[in-house]
Amino acid sequence: MSRFRDLARILIGTGIAVAASFAAPASPPNIVFILADDLGISDLRCYGSAWHDTPNLDRLAREGRRFTSAYAAAPICSASRAALLTGRSPARLGLEFVIKDPPAVPPTDHRLQPPPYPRELPLSEVTLAEVLGPGGYATGYFGKWHLNPHAGSYLKWSDTLGPLQQGYAEGDETFGSHPYSERGAAAQPRPALTTGDYGSDALTEKAIGFLRAHRHERFFLHLSHYYVHDPVRTRAAWLVEKYQARLPAGADPRRAAYAAMVETLDHLVGQVLQELDALGLSENTLVVFTSDNGGHPVFAANGPSRGSKWNLYEGGIRVPWIVRWPGVVPAGTESDAPFIGTDLLPSLCASAGVPPPAGVTLDGENVLPLWTGAGATRPDRSFVWHFPYYHPEVKFAEALPRIGVNDFAVSQTRPHSALRSGDRVLLHFWETGVSELYDTARDPGQQVDLAPTDPEGARHLRRQLESELKQQGARTATVIPRT
């Protein structure tokens, strides 16, 4: 019972009462964190997809708790991943965009000049593995890192700045069966898969090997998939044919290949879940599944949310988030209480019974009570996002000028920041100084801007946004002098 008392103290320490029905195991759980790449909030059947078959993730949701207002800390890869690893906001990290190799610099043909591109996640930042490893966990990282410059080839881990230098004891960067594996010398045509065959995936196999090797230890598996990031293509022609018959008339045919990739991701997650069952580990393993940002605008139907990857409307930052911990997280439940990717580190610390890193300013909070159903989000809590860049970086004028709902095209994204307080979301655009205000409970598609009718409410949230960005030391886009 001492372990229960320890965990209860951690939960009560958040200021949230522990429900009488809460149960805790006699020892800390194993932890499996699975991160998808560019998977949208509406891509899974359990999140309302009308087209995609995702039986394994649907099963995970039935056996765990599904969250409908979980947010990525950024609308783009590297920034979101850094926040998950450290519990610190992209603004505080100065890592608000994807990592770029020198000498790349932001374009200068806009009204504002974005800050320099981020180059790396510094070794001085404390990661999940650097907290859980000393806490008694075997740590393994498998898959996409994207927090160091490409070390000789695309997405290759650095031998000085990769996960093995950031606390993870072992791991592998293989692309597995993702189309990235067909780049360069490997870009040779391969035969189509027969019906029912998803193909082998070396990344999943290596992750499963880690589970087997550490089955008698306490472990933390960080599985970072490359699916469903573009390029969007697949050897599973049988899956493409299946989805071609389902998609609406006139839909971009690439969406059928994208759907095949979503189902393949689901299959690969299912292999990990099945291995946990086979090893007898499921009952004492905390599984967390999410995505790094919203879905790609060309392929993913992010509606009813507005926007997509690369912008701070709901479609760019609201992500699927499923938590399973048998006997602790109530099965078959869902919650619309909001939380954010920076909450992962303090929440996993709480589940493992280890303290968060000392002397480090965290932007995330322990939301384990929310995961377990023992508590709720603080009513006064707010969430902040900051994206001081333009996108797309090239051919900006050719992109759609307005960000809409399910446009299935890339839109123009300009430097902007956002704040959520309660159900209200403010977006502030730095080029024009214009703010937009939305009630996400009544208007999930963010179609009715309330700022003109509630200017004082918009001004209040803007002051709060600017105060929090200043406190985080956020870098800003600046006016470009013109001669």
Structural commentary:
By secondary structure, the chain is α/β, with parallel strands linked by helices. It has two domains: 2-379, Alkaline Phosphatase, subunit A (3-Layer(aba) Sandwich); 383-479, 2-Layer Sandwich (Arylsulfatase, C-terminal domain). The chain has twelve helices and 16 strands. The chain has helices at 2-12, 55-63, 77-86, 90-93, 128-132, 202-213, 237-244, 254-278, 314-317, 344-352, 368-372, 455-471, and strands at 30-36, 65-67, 70-71, 112-113, 138-143, 170-172, 219-224, 285-291, 321-324, 333-335, 339-340, 382-387, 416-421, 424-429, 434-439, 478-479. α6 runs parallel beside α8 (254-278).
Provide a short characterization of the protein structure.
This protein is α/β, with parallel strands linked by helices and about 475 residues long. The protein folds into two domains: about 375 residues, Alkaline Phosphatase, subunit A (3-Layer(aba) Sandwich); about 100 residues, Arylsulfatase, C-terminal domain (2-Layer Sandwich).
Topology:
Layout: H1 2-12, E1 30-36, H2 55-63, E2 65-67, E3 70-71, H3 77-86, H4 90-93, E4 112-113, H5 128-132, E5 138-143, E6 170-172, H6 202-213, E7 219-224, H7 237-244, H8 254-278, E8 285-291, H9 314-317, E9 321-324, E10 333-335, E11 339-340, H10 344-352, H11 368-372, E12 382-387, E13 416-421, E14 424-429, E15 434-439, H12 455-471, E16 478-479
Parallel strand pairs: 1-7, 1-8, 2-10, 3-11, 5-6, 5-7
Antiparallel strand pairs: 2-9, 4-16, 8-9, 12-13, 13-14, 14-15
